[in-house]
Structure formats: structure tokens, C-alpha cells
Design brief:
The complex is a heterodimer of chains A (381) and B (305).
Chain A (H helix, E strand, L loop, with lengths): L6 H17 L4 H4 L7 H16 L18 H13 L8 H14 L2 H12 L5 E4 L15 E5 L2 E9 L9 E7 L8 E7 L5 E6 L8 E12 L3 E2 L5 H15 L2 H18 L6 H29 L7 H23 L9 H10 L9 H12 L8
Parallel strand pairs in A: 1-4
Antiparallel strand pairs in A: 2-3, 3-7, 4-5, 5-8, 6-7
Chain B lengths: L6 H14 L17 H9 L12 H13 L8 H10 L7 E5 L7 E2 L6 E6 L2 E6 L5 E3 L10 E4 L7 E3 L3 H33 L1 E2 L2 E2 L4 H27 L2 H25 L11 H12 L4 H14 L1
Parallel strand pairs in B: 1-3
Antiparallel strand pairs in B: 2-6, 3-4, 4-7, 5-6, 8-9
Helix pairs in contact in B: 1-3, 3-5, 3-6, 4-5, 5-6, 5-7, 5-8, 6-7, 7-8, 7-9
The chains are: A alpha+beta (381), B alpha+beta (305).
Chain lengths: 381, 305
């Protein structure tokens, strides 16, 4: 067991940091106030991701045959950490790297891979994830957006909500119901967002410009060839996707970076000598590092080729605890950070407050831990 | 970065499991609060399990793993100080080792008895002496903690100085504390999950009620964090890592011990169930090294200067 980065891993991190230092424009942090889903940052991200791709840094952990460098899960984690440390200049394209790409590799048809992977690899594609519905949040398997097979097309009717990036996305990774057999009746369709019948409405929110949306599907016709996996296979596919998504955003690192920057501001203001402040900062750091080690243990499992199981929910909840603590620390001791004094800390807050809500509520993670890690008998339904 | 157990580590933990199997469960009548076994202690020492830190291919992470695993036993074993601190001082120091901070002599000292090595950490340095009856006061029969404890009445004029900075010793002490707490938390959690899965009320196991499930799940999350932070602290030897590990462990102990007893109901108040052995050891560990506040300040100083 060794908790130090290898020389190669340190060099990889340096390479990324150097690239960002050379590539990000002056005033980047102020610019990033727009938020990763904003029109400004989405546009910026297309150019930025293209440059990342040209320099082999968009998806270095992907296999060489599809344009990656064949590096491992540790490098994937380092990549994610560095990007979030710099305010995630990839915008919504981080999803491509984290789970759309890997999921496409595992479950996509050859023609889907041929169509989408090059666009993802070029840093040109933005996806949105059509999962939640007004009456299907944590109970995702109850979703009702209907896809009826009519010849060579599925006719889709229904509504999605809380859909990140929908306003500017090219394609929706859409969960639809093709039969009433709960989890076995859900099917994935890859739907171009300019298909007639799709209406997107932005929902103003605390978490940033252009971030969440309602998406309406009215008689939207989707070719059968756009089905992803078999009919009824969605639950298996999204289980795989969400495992990646849960580890995807290195929230422990974002929170720790925000904490460090908060401490720097407090020191500059002469307010870090008070023991109560120092102690609270240390508690936050402990939570961040506990989450980091829990995530790293899972990354190691990936390196070893193991299947990621319910321990990802445990690590995810650890990150929620860290995010919550750091958000509260900043508000309590640096209230000015959310009132214009720090673009980075404001960005962190806006990402941090959804840690326990997005990609599966924290309470669902606790249910999974209780049943599948602790092996407690399940609740009656 | 390599976080898998290597073959040696797996083997050592397997050996420990085999060796300690007879001690893994205990008949809970006629026992005292502090459950110890000279035979277990001897077997562990003779097997060299407390000396793994000095072995190049094993090192401090393996020592922390050993401490964590032994802490899961209902028997109290003096492993943390011996396995993780003693190698920094003199591997031949007689066991048990008792770590005390100068200026905190009013606190009960774990494993203190005649013949034990007392290591005193003060601002002026680190020294040790062999405890004799003259310097020990019994804590009597009213001790709630699951460790054998006694009081140190003073420090003899003649002590042995050790060539180590007090802060370096405290760092390793924090790591030992964290590793031991991680094992105690894991054992306590396991015993509670077993109980709540079997105990029925309203016609079903009480573990099926979400009020318990979520709090136990949170306990799992912090226990997992304690385990990894302790191992990382052992691996890096970094003062900040050690302080964070000890801080998280002491915070966790505060957070979960109440819940664990709560979920066992009145059974959690009896000596019939072993839960108190782990939780009351945890409680005493929360008082070590000045408690959570001191760990937090130490961590903040180490990380941010």
C-alpha cells in the first residue's frame, strides 16, 4: 500500500496544470462565474475541449484504439481533480469523459460508436441526461415518458425535469418507458435535441446560469437505430453510468480547494488566528480527506479490475458531508464570498449545495449503504 | 498510489484472524469492564505481530492494519503504542507502552501497571521509564472504560531521554490512536448491525426502520473514512495527515457511540452485550492528546501554518 503519487502521476498532474496555466484566458475565474452550463462557458468549452483533445488531455484514460492514451483510472481521477480545481473549463463536456464515453464504449452499437465517439473525442459534443421527471426523482424506476414503437420509429411523449445542460445540448441520453414492467420496461434513446416536438424551458436556480431545465417531448419521432442497448436494458446501463457519475465529479477535491482558498482569504484578513475558525477548518479538511481516501479506494478497485459496488454510495455520501461542511464554513466565516468577493468560492457553493441532490439523493445512497454494505434487512415496500 | 493490500499484508491479517479466533467472541457473564488476556498478548508478541513496522517489506501501514484489526477484538490489547510508536524509540522497550503527555497526569492511563514502559511527551522532549508500584495509583473498581487503566502519581527523577522530537512522537501517537479507533468503530458497528437485524419490534427487524438505517449508514461512512485516514497517516508519516486522522476518529466516536447504544435499547446498557467494550474504549480515546479541539488545531497548524 502506498499513498504517494508515482513520478509519472505527478508529471501527468503537472502537465495538466501547465496546460491550463498556458491555455485559460486572463480573467478566467471571473468569466467562470457564468457557470458550466451557461451559453458563454458552453461556447468556451467547445474550443477548450478541442485544444485538450489536440493535446491528448481530453480523455487520456480511454483506450488507444479510440484516440485515448490508454492511461489508467488514477490518471482519470487526476484529470478530474485538476479540471475542477480550475473551475471545470470543460463545462458540461466533463460528462462525456466521465460516463457518456465509457458507457458508449460498453453498450453502444458499432454505428453509434462510429457516430458519437469521434464527436466526443473532438471535444465538440454536449449531452444532456434525460432521467428525472416531475413525479420520478429518487424513484427513477417509476418514470413515465413513453416511447411507443411505430415501424422504424419510437414516438416519444412525456416530460423530463432538472435536466442539466438541456438548453444547449446536442443530444439527450433519454430514459423512456417501453413497457409497464417497472425497471425492465425502461429503454434508452439517443435523441438529437433539434428533433421536432422537443421544447426546453430553463428553470432559474441557485446553482448557476442555464443549469437546469424542463424538457417536454410531444410526439417526438426517434429512429429505432437511436435506441441505446436493447429494449428494457436501461436499468443495467444506467447502473453502470451512475457508478461512473458518482465518482465523476471529484467533489472532495473541489471542496478541499475551496477550503484552502477560503483559509487563504481568512489569513489575508487576519481572521485565521482564532482557534474556533482553525478548528472548524480542520474538521472540514478531515471530511474532505476522508471522502478523498474513500474515493481513492474505489479508484484502486477499478485499477485492479474489480466491479464497483455499493461502496461507491458510501464514498459519495462522504463527499456530500465534505461539501456541506465546506459550504457552511465559507458562509459562516467568509459571507462576502457569496456576495461578489470570490468567483471561485461562489462557483464552489453553487456546485456544492447540490452534492446531496444531483445524481441520486443522499438518502438513496444511505439506503444503498444500509442494504448492500451493512447488509441490513430491507425495508418492507 | 497503490491502495490494495499486498500479499504480505493479507497474509499477516489472515494469521491474526486465525490466532485471535478463540478471542473473537466472549461469554459475557462474569466479565469485568476491561477484558484482557495475557495469553493473547503473549501470542501476539511472540508472533512478532507488533514488530512489523520495522520490517522493510511491511512498514507502518502494515503496523496500522495490525492495530486496526486487533482493536476489533472484545479483548483490549496494547497494540497501538507498541506497534507504531515503540519502533521510533527503541524496539526493545518492555511492553505494554503507556503514552502520556506531561501536564495531563490527572487522566487515567491505559494499560498502566508495574513493569510497563511509560513514555512521557513534553515540550522539552520525550523520555521514558519503567513504571513501578510507587508511581501507580489504582483506579479502583469503578472504571467504565473497556481498558485496564490506572493513574500515574508522578514522574521519577531518573528517566531515559529519546532522540525524537515531541511533535514527531505526537504524530505517530495520533496515527496509532486513529488506527485503533477505526478498529473499535468497525467492531461496534458490526455488533450493532447484527443486533438490529435480529431484534424484532412491530413484527419486523428494527433494522428495517429508516430512522436506524440512515444513521447506521452514516456510521459506516465515517468508519470507512477513519480506516482510510489512519492508513494514509501511517503511510505518509505526515503530521497533517495524522492530525486529520485522529481528529476524524475522535469526531466519529462522538458521533456514533450514542447512536449505537440507543439502537440496542436497554440491551445496550447491559454488560451482557459486548458493545460497551468498544464504545467505552472509543470514549477514552476521545480524551487522548487533548481531545478533538487539540487535534483540530494541530491539523490546522500542520496544513495551513
Amino acid at each position: 500500500m502506498n499513498f504517494e503519487w508515482t513520478d509519472e502521476q505527478q508529471a501527468f498532474r503537472r502537465r495538466l496544470v501547465d496546460f491550463l496555466a498556458a491555455t485559460l484566458p486572463g480573467g478566467w475565474e471571473e468569466f467562470s462565474r457564468h457557470g458550466p452550463a451557461s451559453p458563454a462557458l458552453t461556447e468556451f468549452a467547445r474550443g477548450f475541449c478541442r485544444k485538450l483533445a489536440e493535446n491528448g488531455m481530453l480523455f487520456p484514460h480511454w483506450p488507444k484504439e479510440i484516440g485515448g492514451e490508454g492511461l489508467g483510472p488514477w490518471e482519470q481521477q487526476i484529470l478530474a481533480e485538476v479540471m475542477w480545481e480550475y473551475g471545470e473549463p470543460r463545462g458540461g463536456q466533463y460528462m462525456n469523459v466521465n460516463w457518456i464515453g465509457p458507457t458508449m464504449l460498453k453498450y453502444g452499437t458499432e454505428s453509434q460508436k462510429a457516430k458519437y465517439l469521434p464527436q466526443i473525442a473532438a471535444g465538440e459534443m454536449l449531452w444532456c441526461q434525460g432521467f428525472s421527471e416531475p413525479n420520478s426523482g429518487s424513484d427513477l424506476a417509476s418514470l413515465r415518458t413513453r416511447a411507443e414503437l411505430e415501424g422504424d420509429y419510437y414516438r416519444v411523449n412525456g416530460q423530463k425535469i432538472w435536466t442539466s445542460y438541456a438548453g444547449l445540448a446536442d443530444t439527450c441520453f433519454l430514459l423512456t418507458r417501453t413497457s409497464d414492467d417497472r425497471k425492465k420496461g425502461i429503454t434508452i434513446l439517443l435523441v438529437p435535441m433539434d428533433t421536432p416536438g422537443i421544447t426546453v424551458r430553463q428553470i432559474p436556480s441557485l446553482i448557476g446560469e442555464g443549469d437546469i431545465h424542463e424538457v417536454f417531448f410531444d410526439d417526438v419521432l426517434v429512429p429505432v437505430g437511436q435506441r441505446f442497448g436493447e429494449e428494457g436494458q436501461a436499468w443495467e446501463v444506467i447502473g453502470y453510468s451512475l457508478t461512473n457519475e458518482r465518482l465523476g465529479i471529484p467533489r472532495y477535491h473541489l471542496a478541499r480547494t475551496a477550503l484552502d482558498r477560503g483559509v487563504t482569504m481568512l489569513k489575508q484578513a487576519g481572521d485565521f488566528s482564532r482557534e474556533t475558525v482553525k478548528a472548524e477548518a480542520a474538521r472540514c479538511a478531515a471530511l474532505c480527506e476522508a471522502a478523498r481516501t474513500a474515493i481513492y479506494a474505489i479508484v484502486q478497485k477499478r485499477v485492479d479490475g474489480g466491479t464497483i459496488g455499493p461502496e461507491s454510495s458510501s464514498a459519495r455520501f462522504a463527499t456530500v458531508m465534505a461539501e456541506r461542511a465546506v459550504c457552511e464554513f465559507i458562509v459562516e466565516y467568509l459571507p462576502e464570498a457569496l456576495a461578489g468577493a470570490s468567483a471561485f468560492l461562489q462557483m464552489h457553493h453553487q456546485r456544492g449545495i447540490v452534492a446531496g441532490i444531483a445524481s441520486g439523493a443522499a438518502e438513496i445512497q444511505l439506503n444503498i449503504i444500509a442494504s448492500d454494505v451493512l447488509q441490513l434487512p430491507r425495508e418492507p415496500r | 498510489m497503490e491502495l490494495s493490500l499486498n500479499q504480505d499484508q493479507t497474509q499477516i491479517l489472515d494469521f491474526i484472524d486465525s490466532l485471535t479466533r478463540p478471542y473473537a467472541t466472549v461469554p459475557m457473564h462474569d466479565i469485568s469492564f476491561a477484558l484482557t488476556s495475557d495469553e493473547l498478548d503473549r501470542e501476539l508478541a511472540e508472533g512478532g505481530f507488533l514488530d512489523v513496522m520495522a520490517m522493510e517489506e511491511l512498514g507502518p501501514v502494515t503496523a496500522a492494519l495490525v492495530v486496526e484489526r486487533l482493536a476489533r477484538l472484545p479483548f483490549a490489547v496494547e497494540a497501538g503504542a507498541s506497534a507504531l510508536v515503540r519502533p521510533l524509540l527503541d524496539p526493545a522497550l518492555p511492553r505494554p507502552l503507556c503514552l502520556v503527555e506531561e501536564g495531563r497526569l490527572r487522566q487515567p492511563v491505559r494499560f498502566l501497571k508495574p513493569g510497563a514502559t511509560v513514555v512521557v511527551v513534553g515540550e522539552g522532549g520525550v523520555r521514558s521509564f519503567t513504571a513501578t508500584a510507587d508511581f501507580i495509583r489504582s483506579a479502583g473498581d469503578e472504571v467504565l472504560y473497556g481498558y485496564p487503566v490506572a493513574y500515574l502519581t508522578g514522574i521519577p527523577a531518573e528517566t531515559r531521554s529519546h532522540d525524537i522530537m515531541p511533535d514527531a512522537l505526537r504524530t505517530q501517537w495520533r496515527t496509532a490512536l486513529a488506527a485503533e479507533a477505526a478498529g473499535l468503530l468497525a467492531a461496534a458497528l458490526q455488533s450493532v448491525t447484527t443486533y438490529v437485524s435480529e431484534r424484532k419490534q412491530f413484527g419486523r427487524p428494527i433494522a428495517t426502520f429508516q430512522a436506524l438505517r440512515h444513521r447506521l449508514a452514516e456510521a459506516q461512512v465515517v468508519t470507512n473514512g477513519c480506516y482510510w485516514l489512519a492508513l494514509r497517516a501511517a503511510g505518509t508519516g505526515d503530521a497533517g495527515d495524522a492530525a486529520l486522522a485522529a481528529l476524524h476518529a475522535q469526531e466519529a466516536a462522538k458521533k456514533v457511540a450514542y447512536d449505537f447504544h440507543q439502537f440496542l435499547g436497554a440491551m445496550g446498557m447491559t454488560l451482557e452485550h459486548p458493545l460497551h467494550l468498544w464504545t467505552y474504549r472509543l470514549k477514552l480515546l476521545t480524551a487522548e492528546l487533548g481531545g478533538r479541539g487539540a487535534q483540530a488545531i494541530a491539523a490546522a497548524d500542520a496544513i495551513w501554518g
